[in-house]
Predict the structure of Calponin-homology (CH) domain-containing protein.
Amino acid sequence: MPNCEWLRKTVGVVAAKDLPDAPSEEEFRLGLRNGLMLCNALNKVHPGAVPKVVVNPGDSVILPDGAALSAYQYFENVRNYLVAGQDLGLPVFEASDLEQVLKHSLRTTRAGMEFMQMKYYEEFSNLGQHLYSLAHAASNYSKVLMENRKLYNQVQDLRVA
């Protein structure tokens, strides 16, 4: 899943520790269900989009599949992600869909991740082009400044002569 690779690069391996390198659809859903990676990815693409991200909850519940998950963290992070995503015009889903294995919801989540990946790449690419043009303009400015100094010195030499 290329989305998983992008997600791991975007939020970092530490934040994406619950997401295997090549996850199945079920592992992908399990990695996203607490909302932490979703919130972090959205904040990387749009800093501050999700103002409150619950990182270290106090009360954990052990689920049948063996994963520790705080109900508060799950609902708070997923709700915050969905509100921010809706404000940004991203495709959204129901919070309960992460616990129900619905292919449609996974596709919607994946589409949202692809959209964020595309926007992140586009914005990063535009930033690179802008920085390149600024660097080019700065190097030309230095040449123009040196030429102006040379002309000024020539005018001064003509005045003295």
In short: The chain has one domain: 2-124. Residues 103-160 form the longest helix (58 residues). Confidence is low (pLDDT under 50) at residues 58-67. The helical segments are 2-15, 25-32, 36-45, 71-87, 103-160.
